[in-house]
């Protein structure tokens, strides 16, 4: 089965700058480590994509068409199909005072962000800072080695693949997401670990929207995607049993500790009773003779 637009698949790739041979991105953890670009926050391995959905560069999407599962290919991507040509308008001079207001001491090579647009400081002189907001790979020819690791055909696996793409997290297992597909509606109950994500709520909302959009735009007969958060009370039976056993032991120990005291009290009561009986007998003996004399 050959790849076509709209197909869900898992893709392996390694990207280099053609002019220098520098590896700037890869799905292979071993390659990343060898090239000194290993990131602890990145999930390595074949990434899930939808062909034609804009998940990878246009040049890569075009190269994937008609490839078969397991096929490998080398792709040369010019700037216009990669990260674009360098735009002189994206290089700005910013007064040093603006950085001082933010408590920033600008240095050459420092990465900054202005209105959510990343940039790199190229020079600092004369009270002004020159910042380049072009993508770091803009204007460069790229060399990609790609492989179609798997063409995904199962609907539930397609949905899980989009969760993995838009919500990558090494601590979350895709198999733990609960998914149902019924009457044109997909219901997703994500792994409980996502409830403790520290991302801002608005970011999580955008992630869910992107997952939903990719699903309804690329899966037939799906019109609605619903995310469900379930909070369930759970009782740990083993913990309960241990608590009961511990409580029983404590009660037994308390009873054991009290037995000598109780025994002593019973003994004292018995002694008092014996003393009372003795006194009573003495009183009777004294009274009986008196009655006889009368």
Q: What would your notes on this structure say?
A:
The protein has 294 residues and is of the alpha+beta class. 36% of the residues lie in helices and 24% in strands. The strands form three sheets. Strands 1, 2, 3, 4 and 9 form a five-stranded antiparallel sheet that branches.
Characteristics of this structure?
disordered C terminus, five-stranded antiparallel β-sheet
What fraction of residues sit in β-strands?
15-25%
How would the global form be characterised? globular
What is the residue-mean pLDDT, rounded to a whole number? 84
Biggest sheet, in brief?
A: 5 strands, antiparallel
Radius of gyration: 39 Å
Low-pLDDT runs: 272-294
Question: Secondary-structure element order, as H and E?
Answer: EEHEHEEHEEEEHEEHEH
Helical run tally: 6
- Cα(first) to Cα(last) distance is 131 Å
Total E-strand runs:
12
Assign a percent range to the helix content.
25-40%
Computed structural class: alpha+beta
């Amino acid at each position: 089965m050959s790849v076509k637009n709209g197909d869900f698949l898992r893709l392996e790739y390694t990207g280099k700058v053609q002019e220098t041979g520098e590896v700037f991105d890869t799905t292979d953890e071993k390659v990343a480590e060898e090239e000194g670009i290993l990131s602890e926050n990145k999930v390595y391995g074949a990434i899930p994509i939808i062909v034609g959905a804009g998940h990878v560069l246009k040049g890569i999407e075009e190269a994937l068409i008609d490839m078969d599962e397991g096929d490998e290919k080398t792709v040369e991507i010019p700037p216009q199909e990669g990260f674009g040509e360098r735009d002189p308008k994206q290089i700005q001079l910013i007064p040093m005072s603006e950085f001082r207001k933010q408590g920033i001491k600008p240095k050459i090579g420092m990465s900054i962000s202005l209105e959510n647009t990343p940039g790199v400081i190229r020079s600092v002189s004369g009270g002004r800072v020159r910042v380049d907001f072009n993508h770091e790979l803009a204007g460069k020819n790229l060399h990609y080695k790609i492989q179609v690791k798997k063409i995904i055909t199962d609907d539930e696996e397609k949905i899980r693949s989009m969760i993995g793409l838009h919500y990558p997290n090494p601590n979350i297992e895709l198999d733990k997401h609960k998914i149902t597909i019924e009457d044109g509606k997909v219901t997703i109950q994500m792994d409980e670990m996502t409830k403790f994500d520290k991302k801002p709520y608005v970011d999580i909302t955008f992630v869910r929207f992107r997952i939903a959009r990719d699903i309804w735009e690329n899966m037939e007969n799906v019109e609605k995607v619903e995310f469900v958060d379930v909070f369930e009370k759970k009782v740990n039976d083993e913990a309960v049993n241990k608590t009961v056993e511990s409580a029983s032991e404590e009660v037994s120990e308390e009873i054991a500790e009290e037995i000598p005291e109780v025994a002593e009290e019973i003994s004292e009561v018995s002694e008092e009773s014996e003393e009372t009986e003795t006194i009573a007998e003495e009183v009777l003996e004294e009274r009986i003779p008196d009655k006889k004399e009368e």
